[in-house]
Every structure is written in structure tokens, then in C-alpha cells.
Specification:
Layout lengths: L4 E9 L5 H11 L3 E12 L4 E6 L2 H14 L4 E4 L5 H13 L5 E3 L17 H8 L5 E2 L3 H8 L7 H12 L5 E5 L7 E8 L2 E8 L9 H14 L4 H17 L17 H7 L3
Helix pairs in contact: 1-7, 2-3, 3-4, 5-6, 7-8
Length: about 270
């Protein structure tokens, strides 16, 4: 039986809680081998992003060519791509290698509030990458920016913005409502067949760094294992909820700490 493999194309988080590091942890936690293409280096910790160093587009493409030419990639997760020329290189590579099950997390702003995507790159993202996505996973702020609307205040507005992003060419859109307040954390999946609602109990924790990266990479992991999209979203939401619930068990940094990707493994190791 072939080993399921997922690829992440994203930025590196030196603090280990988001980006490439969160993606690879998620793939491993869910039983999938992870490969990576690093599109940017960030100097960051749990408090802030102090620097971003973009990898040359031609070297991003060289990494893609190396991985796709050797491994059978079941799903590709795309995260932080800061510049238009890097987005172009990634789009060309995806097309050349006929990449499937593309999960696009349009990372624009870090949890700390730091801008990660240059404004002139947004149009390139919309025109070149969104049409390649099996699913696009914006949070409320990103959905507003991509749809040209103000930030959604309810589920109806979330669905409307998802439908607007769907018109950009994606096969489906998952609008994440984690920034809402209330007892439930609601995500809305929009595709050609309609609208589906995914809910989970809201967990009070300041340690939520990397939740968006983790959700999108968990979806990609399940797709790589051959699961359908709706089932992959449901599993990913459950995984993220449990990782947040266990996050306060980690004592990492002085700011917003990471979620606990290996909560189940560590529990077994400690015999709990």
C-alpha cells in the first residue's frame, strides 16, 4: 500500500507554531508523510513577526520540481506566499505538474496582526491561484478582502462572501468563523451544490497560534488519504478543536502560544 504524501508550499515560522512547521506536524499527526517547499523565511515568535525574507521564485520552482518529479503527492497545501512573482512561480509549477487536491490558505495577516502578503500580490493570488484550488480557506478578514466586502458579521454574510470567492474559479470555499464570539466556532463550506455548516465548541485559550495553517493542512492530509472534501473538513475541524483544547498544556513563549499538534501521541507517551 502506497504511503499517503502531502506537500506544503508556505513560509517557515522560526517559532515553530505556524507555517511549514505547523503543516508538517499536522501531516505527521494524521498519519501522512509531509514534504515541503519553503517560499519565505520569517523571523517570528509567539509575540510578533520581526522580519520576512522571500525565497527567489526560481528556487521555489526548483523545490517544487524536485518534489513533484519524485513523489506521488496526494494533496498540496499552499500557505504564505508574500509576493506576486512567487505566486506566479507556484501557479506555473502546480499547472506543470498537474497537482491535485490543492488546499489554498490565503494567508494575509499573522495572528499577531503583522501583514504577511504584499497588497500588490492580492490580485495575482485571485487571478492565478484561486482558480486552481479544490478548496480555499480564508478567515473572516481574508474573505472580506478577497470578496471586496466588509468583514462578515453573521453566517449569511459568510456564505455570501464564500459564493463571491467561488466565482473567482475555486471549486469550493471554506470561510472560517473562528474570530466570531459565542459558544460555537462556525465554518461555512460553499460549493456548487450549496452551503454546509461545520460547528465545534469554542474553546477559551490564548494559545491559538497556527490554527489556520493547521486546519488547512489537516484538510490536505485527509485528502491525501483519499477522503472526500466534506469528510476532510469535518475531521480537520475536530483535530484543530482538540489541539486547541490541549494547547494550554504547552508552555511555549510569552505571547500567543501554538496549538498542540501531538496531543494524542504525547498523552500516550506519558501513559495518561
Amino acid at each position: 500500500m502506497a504511503t499517503p504524501i502531502a506537500l506544503t508550499i508556505a513560509g517557515s515560522d522560526s517559532g515553530g507554531g505556524a507555517g511549514i512547521q505547523a503543516d508538517l506536524k499536522t501531516f505527521s499527526a494524521l498519519g501522512v508523510y509531509g514534504a515541503s517547499v519553503i517560499a519565505a523565511l520569517t523571523a517570528q515568535n509567539t509575540k510578533s513577526v520581526s522580519g520576512i525574507f522571500d525565497i527567489a521564485p526560481e528556487f521555489v520552482r526548483k523545490q517544487m520540481d524536485a518534489v513533484y518529479s519524485d513523489m506521488k503527492i496526494g494533496a498540496t497545501k499552499i500557505g504564505m506566499l508574500a509576493r506576486a512573482d512567487i505566486i506566479e512561480a507556484v501557479a506555473e509549477g502546480l499547472a506543470a505538474h498537474k497537482a491535485k487536491n490543492i488546499v489554498l490558505d490565503p494567508v494575509m495577516v499573522a495572528t499577531s496582526g503583522d501583514l504577511l502578503l504584499k497588497p500588490d500580490a492580492i490580485d495575482t493570488l485571485k487571478n492565478r491561484l484561486i482558480p486552481l484550488g479544490l478548496v480555499v480557506t480564508p478567515n473572516l478578514g481574508e474573505a472580506a478582502a478577497l470578496s471586496g466586502e466588509s468583514v462578515a458579521q453573521d453566517e449569511t454574510a459568510m456564505a455570501k462572501q464564500g459564493q463571491a470567492i467561488l466565482k473567482l474559479g475555486a471549486q469550493s470555499v471554506l470561510v472560517k468563523g473562528g474570530h466570531f464570539e459565542g459558544a460555537e466556532a462556525i465554518d461555512i463550506l460553499v460549493d456548487a451544490s450549496g452551503v454546509r455548516r461545520f460547528s465545534a465548541r469554542r474553546i477559551a485559550s490564548k494559545n491559538t497560534h497556527g490554527t489556520g495553517c493547521t486546519l488547512s493542512s489537516a484538510i490536505a492530509a485527509s485528502l491525501a488519504r483519499g477522503m472526500p472534501l466534506a469528510e476532510s473538513v469535518a475531521l480537520a475541524k475536530r483535530f484543530v478543536s482538540e489541539a486547541i483544547a490541549a494547547a494550554d498544556g504547552l508552555k511555549v513563549g510569552e505571547g500567543r502560544g501554538p496549538v498542540h499538534h501531538f496531543y494524542e501521541l504525547w498523552k500516550k507517551k506519558r501513559g495518561n
